[in-house]
Specification:
Asp/Glu_racemase_AS_1, EC 5.1.1.3, 10 strands, Asp/Glu/hydantoin_racemase, cell shape
Amino acid sequence: MKIGFFDSGIGGITVLYDTLKVLPNEDYIYYADTSNVPYGPKPKDEVKKYILNAIDFIVEQGVKAVVIACNTATSVAIEALRSKYSIPIIGMEPAVKPAIEKNKDMNKRVLVTATALTLKEEKLHNLIYKLDNEHVVDLLPLPGLVQFSERLEFDEQIVLPYLKEELFKFDLNNYEAIVLGCTHFSYYKDMVRKLVPSNVSIIDGNIGTAKNLKRILKEMNLLNEGHGNITFYNSGIRVEDKAELDRYSRLFERMDNINEYNISEKI
């Protein structure tokens, strides 16, 4: 049986990329809701409807687990999904906990970046309230990165000015860590690195999610030896067009360029 991955668009590929390191022999379905991306600016109820319809489709394909590889979708719908399905539903949340734990002396701050909807949601605010005893967390929406990545725009001359304008609203010398709280943002980790002091950590939740998936499948005796195959769906339509498959390959290549780990050879 396959593992389902869901995202509003192509951000979840960054999570699938890290999952292939941890579980290289499983088979996967990747569902991008390309008809409705981006989710961040949309009303919560509308987004929740999109998510529930997409997961219905994924579960109908006979998957053994679903990864909600989208922080916004997790914050909006994870409780409803877990109450509806008996298979494991693995969500994501901005990596606030490891960022705060890294900030041992509490003399510096933590900047959490995400979509506007994620930053507004009660789920994130409850997490911060529980962990941020010293009130060191600041929030920054970066909706432009979602738009850039959906267009496969990775040109530094275009993206860096946007990042500079947004990040330089803060004195980055005062920060211990920057959390990339949207899976789309991980495509730009190398560009963020160029703009922040070398001692500032850049953290996302991708590898932690992959390891959590492996742990849950192992506990449920659901690990199996597949072939590492991926079937792509765009809003419920199977991707078979060569140009669109090439688009997905370019995303894996982008992650290879950042991580120096050649997964794109397997795609």
